[in-house]
């Protein structure tokens, strides 16, 4: 089995993550840091993607351990989890800015879309039902430029 050499995580980023983990009452562990680094390297990763990335650094880590870390880091707001239609959940480290996502229905590509309003919740609902709304999750569905370029031209109209 061939292993891919991964560059060491950025020391400044690791220090910031360590501080955030402690501020949330979490111990700084190599498993948590490896998951954060994996998701940072590959935004919009599935849990399986994260497992593969983390195992490149920590080969003995279990799938269950990665899922537990993903769940915990999402619960404390260090990771964001979102679920495009007909797709497994995806994770990213970009949190706290209430951005949205565009999802290609052909190839599954996902890209970030910044809020047009510039502040959370970024959309104005018709009713808030007494809640203080914190965020709005929007997934735009479309066809990405690569898929459009690869698609055959539509047939001409038959008259």
Automatic annotation (TrEMBL):
Q: Which residues bind Zn(2+)?
A: 104, 107, 144, 147
Is this entry keyworded Cytoplasm?
Answer: yes
InterPro entries, per database record: FUR, Fur_C, WH-like_DNA-bd_sf, WH_DNA-bd_sf
Q: Which cofactor does it need?
A: Zn(2+)
Q: Where in the cell is it found?
A: Cytoplasm
Kindly state a single biological-process term from the GO annotations of this entry: negative regulation of DNA-templated transcription
Note how many cofactor molecules are bound and how.
Binds 1 zinc ion per subunit.
GO cellular component entries: cytoplasm
Matching Pfam families: FUR
What are the protein's GO molecular function terms? DNA-binding transcription factor activity; transcription cis-regulatory region binding; zinc ion binding
Family per similarity comment: Belongs to the Fur family.
Return the protein name: Ferric uptake regulation protein FurA
Q: Which organism is it from?
A: Kocuria turfanensis
């Amino acid at each position: 089995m061939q292993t891919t050499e991964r560059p060491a995580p950025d020391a400044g980023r690791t220090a910031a993550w360590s501080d955030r983990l402690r501020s949330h009452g979490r111990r700084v562990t190599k498993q948590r840091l490896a998951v954060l680094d994996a998701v940072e390297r590959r935004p919009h990763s599935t849990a399986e993607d994260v497992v593969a990335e983390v195992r490149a650094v920590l080969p003995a880590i279990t799938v269950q351990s990665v899922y537990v870390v993903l769940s915990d880091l999402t619960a404390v707001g260090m990771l964001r989890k979102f679920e495009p239609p007909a797709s497994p959940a995806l994770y990213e480290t970009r949190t706290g800015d209430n951005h949205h996502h565009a999802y290609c229905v052909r190839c599954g590509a996902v890209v970030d879309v910044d809020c047009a309003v510039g502040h959370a919740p970024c959309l104005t609902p018709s009713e808030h039902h007494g809640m203080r709304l914190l965020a709005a999750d929007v997934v735009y569905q479309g066809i990405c430029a690569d898929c459009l370029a690869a698609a055959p031209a539509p047939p001409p109209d038959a008259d």
